[in-house]
Design a protein that fits this description.
The protein is α+β, with helices and mostly antiparallel strands. It is built from five helices and eleven strands; from the N terminus they run H-E-H-E-E-H-E-E-E-E-H-E-E-H-E-E. The chain has helices at 3-29, 53-62, 88-102, 148-156, 179-191; strands spanning 44-49, 68-74, 77-85, 106-110, 119-121, 130-131, 136-140, 161-165, 168-176, 196-200, 205-208.
């Protein structure tokens, strides 16, 4: 092996090490998202599923300038924490607006009585949002018209739920492990003029088992 060849190999090795060091520096330089702080005594807060900083900044622009917002971690989700609400109705109004109009899933969290742990309350009392399991979800885009749920219930004879998929709210008609059944309902609803799609249900978050009509 010639001297020139050895020098060439050493240069390539040095470049590779420098590139690898840059990758590690980039990874370790990423800021760690802090855990969300629980509400103070007598306070109501919103947790908005924002996931990325860009969505957080958009939510900030929508909210009043006086709103106290933080980008933080709640369980397995990255959310925008909105604090400062002293009345539950105001908090629920904003949750409903962000959910139904803007398209971000938002939930009201209340300060716990005495020493009980903080619990999260979606706009439907007594239910905590959760991921759907394996299978297929048949979703309908209702274009901010909740009355579409009534038409779907009459047509299919099932309870229609509200879910979040890809940062947008949709109506859930069916969750099934049968691809044949999901595609059958897809064709039926498409023929009726609905904007419908079949997606991987593991990527869908269930917000309400039955849509509440306002």
């Amino acid at each position: 092996m010639t001297r020139e060849t050895i020098q060439f190999i050493l240069q390539i090795f040095s470049i590779a090490l420098a590139a690898l060091a840059g990758v590690f520096d980039s990874v370790y330089a990423q800021p760690i998202t802090p855990q969300c702080q629980p509400p103070q005594n007598g306070e109501y807060i919103l947790l908005v599923l924002s996931r990325i900083r860009k969505n957080h900044e958009q939510i900030q622009r929508i909210l009043p300038n006086s709103a106290k917002t933080d980008f933080c971690q709640y369980l397995e989700d990255t959310v925008t924490r909105v604090g400062g609400f002293r009345g539950i109705n105001d908090a629920k109004d904003w949750a409903r607006y962000l959910d139904q109009v803007v398209g971000y899933s938002a939930f009201v969290v209340q300060s716990p009585p005495s020493s009980q742990p903080t619990t999260i309350q979606p706009t439907t009392p007594g239910y905590t949002p959760q991921r759907l399991g394996d299978g297929y979800a048949v979703l309908v885009d209702y274009f901010n018209q909740p009355e579409v749920a009534s038409r779907l219930e009459q047509l299919l004879g099932v309870n229609v739920g509200l879910v979040s998929y890809a940062q947008r709210p949709y109506l859930l008609t069916v969750h099934t492990t049968s691809e044949t059944q999901a595609n059958s309902i897809l064709r039926r609803l498409s023929a009726e003029g609905f904007w419908v799609m079949v997606v991987d249900s593991r990527r869908v978050t269930l917000l309400k088992r039955k849509v509440v009509r306002f």
